[in-house]
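[Meeting: bench + compute handoff]

Bench side (C.D.) handed over the final construct sequence. Compute side (W.E.) agreed to return the predicted structure before the next meeting so the bench team could plan truncations. Sequence as handed over:
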Amino acid sequence: MNSFWGNLYDRHKDRRYAAIFLAAFLGFFGLAIPGVMLYLQAHAFTPSLVDVLPGMGALVIALAGLFWRITRRARAHRNPSGYSPLSRDEWRKARSKLLKEQKVKKS
């Protein structure tokens, strides 16, 4: 049996926007819940804003961590040259070729 959360994520993961979608989804509910609490407080509901602050702080920290992770992953996958990195053998051959060319120029 498929879960609601599994299906929610599966629809968006192939587009590589799953992290952004889930961050926006959590951010919406993270802002909606305190908003409802503030609305109820304004209309003589007993919980105060101080009761909501720890949850809001945890949500902000979680979203900041998610944003940090997305940013670091994007930077790690960036390859401006468009070429794949060289293997050790290719590095060794290129270095020896450059050293040979420098020796020929000096003589």
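W.E. noted at the follow-up: Residues 4-106 form one domain. C.D. will use this when planning the next construct.
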